[in-house]
């Protein structure tokens, strides 16, 4: 039985689709619905349910809108990194750093570690495990934690731009664009590498250039951790990365790696499941359906008119618009909004890469620019408070410099 009379259904569908889309994106932009406790995943669930209720999206076409390869890739990478966390891999790295590293070299080490790990694994999860690592190391080395926490946030965003598996929006772009893993890395790997150098230069200039080496004292530490389970996880992780470069579909090889890690005698699976960000997965499903409903209602055509009017096919214009929308709406919703424009561009390959580059690097502008930043701020809060202005004085120069280099590089390399 239809929910509404047939003669009002088409107009009602259009109004409902636009209302749900705008209300949902309002929550995506500010984090919560004004005056209520509805967060981003909640808004995605409510929006998707309303689109079903108003018959804007039909159950039969819902499966067509949901990109299951992205969900499988994201879920599998969460399992792999969660396993690394549980078997003590990051604690082992922390002990090695404390024992072998001079405090003067801690900043580039944190930037390089956060950036490289985020390039191959989801940056949000890397931030979850890097914050306690940094707090432990800085406490034991007796150095201020703030610049190193800022390094984790900014470097994880920058490093994640390099590959399809670096962050959720790159996973979406990899699935929609069908760009290969090596092709993606070839074009955006140099952007990540130069971006990490820029990040180090800004943080060193603002925080560490006046610090003398004689005031840094390293505390005695115990022997490194010894956990046999760790080596199995590291081996599986290495095989997954080799699979990425060998051209195996990322969702398939990561799912196989995650499945191997579930074959365990000692690790309780429930603990591993607790490492999964289920809210993020729910958010993705709802977002797929909301954007699909907007496409059914004709929103895509209006976006195409907008793109033509503002000449978004120009690399500089598309970079600026992507960066602005990523900070206004958050990067994943911005990518979902802009993805329908790119097939109509003269050079879709470069446009997909610019979308990945700008949506990721612009996340360093403010604390709320990316989920990775929020994770760092919230996890550090008991010991270190990172304010908006403190973050922005680093985020502004890093974002502007990396975006400029990313635009220049992609404009030249194409």
Concise overview:
This protein has 414 residues and is mainly α. The protein contains 20 helices and no strands.
Counting helices, strands and paired strands, the structural category is mainly alpha
Largest sheet: none
Work out the strand percent: under 5%
| Percent range of helical residues | over 70%
Structural features, described:
- The chain has 414 residues and is mainly alpha-helical.
- Helices cover 72% and strands 0% of the residues.
- It is built from 20 helices and no strands.
- It has helices spanning 9-30, 40-53, 59-65, 68-86, 89-100, 106-120, 123-141, 146-160, 168-177, 181-208, 228-246, 250-261, 269-273, 278-296, 299-309, 315-329, 331-338, 348-361, 371-380, 388-413.
Salient structural properties:
414 residues, mainly alpha, 72% helix
């Amino acid at each position: 039985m239809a929910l509404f009379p047939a003669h009002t259904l088409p107009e009602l569908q259009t109004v409902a689709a636009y209302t749900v889309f705008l209300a949902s994106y309002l929550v995506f932009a500010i984090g919560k619905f004004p005056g209520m406790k509805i967060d981003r995943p909640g808004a995605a669930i409510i929006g998707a349910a309303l689109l079903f209720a108003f018959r804007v999206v039909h159950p039969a076409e819902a499966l067509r809108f949901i990109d299951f390869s992205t969900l499988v890739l994201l879920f599998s990478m969460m399992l792999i990194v969660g396993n690394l966390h549980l078997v003590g891999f990051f604690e082992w790295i922390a002990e090695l750093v404390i024992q072998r590293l001079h405090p003067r070299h801690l900043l580039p080490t944190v930037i390089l570690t956060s950036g490289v790990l985020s390039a191959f694994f989801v940056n949000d999860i890397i931030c979850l495990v890097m914050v306690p690592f940094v707090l432990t190391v800085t406490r034991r080395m007796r150095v201020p934690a703030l610049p190193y926490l800022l390094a984790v946030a900014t470097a994880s965003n920058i490093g994640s731009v390099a590959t399809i598996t670096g962050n959720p929006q790159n996973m979406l772009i990899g699935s929609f664009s069908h760009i290969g893993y090596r092709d993606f890395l070839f074009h955006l790997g140099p952007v990540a590498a130069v971006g990490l150098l820029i990040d180090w230069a800004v943080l060193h200039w603002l925080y560490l250039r006046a610090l003398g080496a004689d005031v840094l004292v390293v505390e005695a530490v115990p022997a490194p951790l010894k956990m046999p389970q760790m080596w199995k996880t590291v081996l599986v992780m290495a095989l997954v990365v080799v699979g990425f470069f060998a051209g195996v579909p990322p969702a398939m090889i990561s799912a196989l790696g995650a499945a191997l890690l579930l074959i365990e005698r000692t690790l309780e699976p429930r603990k591993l499941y607790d490492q999964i960000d289920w809210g993020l997965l729910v958010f993705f499903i709802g977002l797929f359906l909301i954007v699909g409903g907007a496409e059914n209602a004709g929103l895509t055509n209006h976006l195409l008119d907008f793109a033509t009017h503002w000449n978004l096919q120009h690399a500089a214009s598309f970079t600026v618009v992507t960066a602005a929308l990523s900070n206004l709406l958050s990067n994943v919703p911005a990518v979902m909004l802009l993805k329908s424009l790119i097939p109509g561009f003269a050079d879709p390959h470069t446009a997909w890469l610019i979308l990945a580059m700008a949506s990721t690097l612009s996340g360093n502008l403010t604390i709320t620019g990316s989920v990775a930043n929020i994770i760092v701020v919230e996890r550090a809060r008991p010991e270190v408070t990172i304010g908006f202005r403190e973050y922005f004085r680093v985020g502004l120069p890093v974002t502007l410099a990396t975006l400029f280099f990313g635009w220049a590089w992609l404009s030249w390399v194409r």
